[in-house]
Amino acid sequence: MHSSTSRFARAVRRLNALCDAQPYVTGWCLIGLPDGGRAEGMRADRHGTRAFPAASTRKVAVMMAALRAVHRGELDLDARVTIDGRYRDRVFTGLLQHLDPGLSLSLRDAVTLMIIQSDNLSTAHVLDLVGLDAVNDLCAAAGLDGTRHRHALIPELAPDHPVDASNVTTPGDQARLLELIVRGSAAGGGTGGEANRLLGCPPELCSFALDVLCRQQFRDALPAFLPYKTKIAHKSGAGWRDVSDGGVFFGDDGPRYVLAVYTDELPAVLPDGLPGFSGARVHIAHLSRACWEEMHP
Where do the Beta-lactamase class A catalytic domain residues begin and end (predicted)? Predict the structure, then answer.
């Protein structure tokens, strides 16, 4: 067996063993990125097509829909966005809800805050410009068949809410979206050109998206157990019953692999006494570490 194939197989076995030990549902998708994403890589998943609450991982698709609109000339990253007070009482995370209304940002900065601080007020204003229909259209064009964006603002839901009451995605869809962004950021034809066509974004806008994801400030899941300054382009999320994180992992030679992890049906308290949400983040960090140990020779 080729060494890279053997490493990938070991990573898959370790991921499944870690998931088997948990009293809640974990889905993941792992995609290798040989030649920095320019060649087709191995992929594996667990519950890869199962619908999970998308939570704030949805914002990657929102960003790409905004960038597609920029490429089409419908939006301008330098245009000003005024952050008003309409949504202040309907959002849960971010900085802007704590600042006085009337702040003016560029669309570029609004998209950046939406990703790196998961700012929901910024997200609401970006979605005002883009529209949910455009986000769903991008997902359909990119082949994200299990993803549905139903709400611009996240409604308050009980922890036992039906999954279809929320925005949903699948581990396979989120991993595919991240893979397309990586491929699309590589100038030239081949798989990169196809990714640009599916996303409706040229290499420079895919590179912008990847750079924004690399500046993520919430590093308590996928990056938590990795060496300091490990480069990951990622976006995490947490809902009323779930924790998730998906990212592109880099080595010295460029992108190495994509790992998207979703947990669901989290109990309030785990058997070891940890809160379910805290334990899920630790679990995702262990999954990430297992992949890193096998995929970084």
Answer: 41-263
Which H or E run contains 209? Answer: helix 203-214
Asked whether 237 and 244 are in contact (CB, 8 A), the reply is yes
Distances (CA, A) of 76 to 5, 65, 130, 199: 44, 13, 12, 17
Q: How far apart are CA 79 and CA 109, in angstroms?
A: 10
Q: Identify the helix (H) or strand (E) that includes residue 31.
A: strand 25-32
Burial state string for 264-289 with b = 16 or more CB within 10 A and e = fewer than 16: bebeeebeeeeebbebbbbbbbbbbb
All structural domains of the chain with their residue ranges: 3-57+64-72+132-295
Which of helix, strand or coil describes residue 237? Answer: strand
State whether CATH 3.40.710.10 applies to domain 3-57+64-72+132-295: yes
Q: Which residues contact 246 (CB under 8 A, 6 or more apart)?
A: 57, 60, 171, 174, 175, 178, 222, 234, 235, 236, 258, 259, 260, 261
- Per-residue pLDDT 10s for the chain (297 aa) are 467 889 999 999 999 999 999 999 999 999 999 876 666 789 999 999 999 999 999 999 999 999 999 999 999 999 999 999 899 888 888 999 999 999 999 999 999 999 999 999 999 999 999 999 999 999 999 999 999 999 998 888 888 889 999 999 999 999 999 999 999 998 665 667 999 999 999 999 999 999 999 999 999 999 999 999 999 999 999 998 999 999 999 999 899 999 999 999 999 999 999 999 999 999 999 999 999 999 986
Which amino acid is it at 33? L
